[in-house]
Amino acid sequence: MRTVFLKGRGDFTEWRDAARALLQADIEPQAVDWRLAGEATLLEGAGEPQPMPEPLAAAGKAVAVPAAFLALAQSVVCHTQPARFALLYRLLFRLRHERQLLEIVSDADVIEALRLEKSVRRDSHKMKAFVRFKEVPGEKGPRRSFVAWFEPDHFIVARTAPFFARRFADMDWLIATPKGSATFNGEGLVVSDQPAEKLDRQDVADDLWRVYYANIFNPARLKVKAMTAEMPKKYWKNLPEASLIPGLIAQAEEKVKEMAEKAASQPPLFHARLRERAATALLADPPHDAPSPTLAGLRRQAEGCTRCPLHCNATQTVFGEGPERADIMVVGEQPGDQEDLAGRAFVGPAGKLFDGVLSEIGIDRQALYVTNAVKHFKYEPRGKRRIHQKPNQGEIEACRWWLGQEVDLVQPKLVVAMGASAYFSLTGEKRPLSEVRGKMMSIGEDRRLLVTVHPSYLLRLQEGEVQRRERQLFQNDLRGMKEYFM
Amino acid sequence: MLMKKSLKERLAILSDAAKYDASCASSGTTKRDSGGSGGLGSTEGSGICHAYAPDGRCISLLKILLTNFCIFDCAYCINRSSSNVERARFTPDEVIWLTLEFYRRNYIEGLFLSSGIIRSSDHTMEEMVRVARELRTTHQFRGYIHLKTIPDASPALIAEAGLYADRLSINIELPTDQGIGQFAPEKKPAGIRRAMGDLRLKIEEASEPTLQTKRRRTFVPAGQSTQMIVGADGASDATILGTSARLYGSYGLKRVYYSAFSPIPDASSKLPLIKPPLMREHRLYQADWLYRFYGFDIGEITASAPDGNLDLDLDPKLAWALGNREKFPVDVNKAPKEMLLRVPGFGTKTVRAILSSRRQRRLRLEDLGRLSVSLRKVQAFIVADGWTPHRLIDRTDLRGMFAPQPQQLALF
Predict the structure, then answer these.
(1) CATH number of domain containing A319
(2) Is B355 on the interface with A (CB under 8 A)?
(3) Which runs of E-coded beta strand occur in A207-246?
(4) Which of A23, A56, B144, B281 is deepest in the core (most CB within 10 A)?
(5) Residue A234: C-alpha distances to residues A10, A156, A385, B365 (Å)
(6) What is the mean pLDDT of chain A?
(7) One domain for residues A220 and A188
(8) Is the pLDDT of residue A225 over 80?
(9) Can you spell out the DSSP letters for B275-341?
(10) Would you call the peptide bond into B329 cis, given omega within 30 degrees of 0 as the criterion?
(11) Does the ipTM surpass 0.90?
């Protein structure tokens, strides 16, 4: 049996040096007794402990280990559990032949190491959370000074201190603990593993913090266990707010009862004044039912449209866009995801395709009035996306009122219906698109109707011959618009 | 003339007024620190809870209102104009001072600033933006900032707020437009959705590399969130979760917070003074997680609830599993990830651990026990080496094995 004495205050290198030498001498984990300096050995009196192996020629040379082991060991070494050194050596020894060992999270040694690592991580996290700095008033310099007293479970000061240096760079500070200390003055961070003297300081800001703590607490939601699970009592003695906790708990029920028993009071005076002002403002709003004689007015009216339930789920009404008087009006089905967010018709992928085809045949989109049969986006949420859903007959009929007004005001000579929904909305007829597509029809006096597919149909086709042909057909249909320009 | 209230008195009023907002997250923003660049503060990915109140909630941010004067009269709100609650306001400088002094003492990760609406939405938003701007530019503050955006504030102000804040949020408040109309008559649900949509577009635009520098700009790096009050109106859980799903899908929200409606001082007679439905709130969070991280559809989660409300006795995943027994048992050594995620008692971490260990060797029930999995819970639903659940899954009393024991009646 070989005995190794370590200081064991979170210093990874002292364990690593010893472990490296043992491993290179091929010493079995069972043959090593890891001890803290000053401790008695396991086999006291049972014979001379064997000396540590002589450093080999290669001593000091690194032993290859998975990176994950290094990080694990650096953390586990900080734990106070006496068996940590033996555990780590056992893992190191096994790793020589079981390279994937750390991935077997059901292995007893791995589980134990992960447990220790977790408790070190948690301790370190709690240090970041529960250190409370107290200001040390000093000369008026550019840097203010603070000190804190904290009591960690493990030897975590050295691994946690850099966090405070990154965070509190513009002040001088000292964190003292029974397991070491850290000081920072802007030049550099100095850590020590020597136990520090307990600090006992007051800070006036603690009073404000307690005021905040007491008032952010909601007595109607008392859940003491949930609090102590995350803020165990062992930390309370160094938390300025903790002295309030017993009182807050004791009075919680009383406070809630008080609220419940108090009858509703008369509203304050300024509430009445606000009501009056709101009532006058409401009178100034235009009535909603009569159709507006202008396109701009109609658009404003449509913003508040509740003719069908789609408005509850969509972001906004997407109204038509284009010249007040346009020779050609293009009607699509409904806004999509992008249109719904931007509040503008045909700005998404289908709109881009439409624009592309227009420019190929030399038509300026600005000259067209572009709108949809349905003005609100209908969709089904699917995770982080929205899946387009076809509007039903009821929704199209509810929205026809707006499209009718748009046609009446814009007075187009040609209306282009893209897709079956647009065709239905404009004619009230349900027919397969293939029967009406590409034909020029009359709707009313001096107004013609051209039917084609919706550009999103082309987007749904797989890239290839069919898509190319369909796109060409779509382009041919749109060419029919050209003779309607003045 | 009233005596001006002291800072301490106002802090008491304006933190009391802020506590009904559930959000306290300080995670998920860009990594930054004051080490190289001077200044004060850092953010390192995961947030830190610096204290816990006896309500079990984490205190991570200084969560206060700039003022609790408000021209709106939302029935559920402690600050509504018809309430006789004591009123106060901070100056932007006072909020900045409190934030920095609290931060230096390591009480907090940063600031969550909200406000009642005074004069106008823009005036209020302007003051809030000023706090964030001065913290960042004058004081080189690198901690976390969450600003609540004020309904109908101008897009330019939101755009500026996004330059300084890690997170912006706007509360949807209630799951249906009808509920908002009834309880928050001045709030316009369409306006709230439009604000969320605008913010999503701005965030997406900033994440595109610019043409000149090819760099992405930092704009609200921790994204946007919202909150819904649970139990103030009659909306069912299915309605609430449906609204959440739409908000996640439509606006790329990072979080929807659920806040059990809690009695407030000087409450409106419109609302019942009930005990806050904390278990219901908890179940909603679980369902929300199932939707976002476990591949469940809202419809699946609420299918077993005839009235649209989640079972309070069983967590929603277990309730789903009991209603879909034909999908079990699941073989932990063979099942795809999607199915492992559906096993009651397996979390995302457990599933990751299973997938990684089973590449090395076959798993037995004991192995799962070592992964801190509750065997009592999972054993009926899985097959492992040396373990089959002996038609446990077909037992009619399976629900009884998980539901809490009935409370014994008190004798008197």
Answers:
(1) 3.40.470.10
(2) no
(3) none
(4) B144
(5) 22, 17, 46, 36
(6) 91
(7) no
(8) yes
(9) ---HHHHHHHHHHHHHHHHS---HHHHHHT-TTS---SSS-HHHHHHHHTGGG--EETTT--HHHHT
(10) yes
(11) yes
Yes or no, beta carbons of B16 and A216 under 8 Å apart = yes
Treating both helix axes as pointing N-terminal to C-terminal, what angle do A12-24 and A84-95 enclose, rounded to 10 degrees?
50
| Contact yes or no for A233/A183 (Cβ under 8 A) | no
CA distance B213 to A118: 42
Question: Comparing C-alpha atoms, which of A446, A413, A424 is closest to residue A372?
Answer: A424
A285 in any annotated domain: no
| B1 confidence band (pLDDT: 50, 70, 90) | very low
Q: Judge: domain B7-265+273-303, CATH 3.90.650.10.
A: no
What is the reported pLDDT for A62?
67
Q: C-alpha angle A23/A27/A32, rounded to 5°?
A: 105
pLDDT of residue B410: 53
Q: In chain B, which among 78-97 make CB contacts under 8 A with chain A?
A: 81-84
Gyration radius of chain B's alpha carbons: 24
Domain that holds residue A257: 213-261
For chain B, positions 369-398, list CB contacts with chain A under 8 A.
370-371
In a domain, A266, yes or no: no
What sign results for the dihedral spanned by CA atoms A76, A78, A79, A85?
A: positive
Say if residue A331 is in the same domain as residue A445. Answer: yes
Query: Which of B189, B263, B356 comes nearest A105 by C-beta?
Result: B356
Nearest-CB residue to A167 (from B34, B189, B190): B34
* pLDDT computed for residue A50 by the predictor: 58
Q: Which residue of B has its CA nearest to A336?
A: B250
Q: What does the pLDDT look like over B287-345, one tens digit per residue?
A: 999 999 999 999 999 987 788 999 999 999 999 999 998 999 999 999 999 999 999 99
Tell me the one-letter amino acid at A48.
Answer: E
B360:A218 CB<8 A: no
Q: Check B267 against A341: CB less than 8 A apart.
A: no
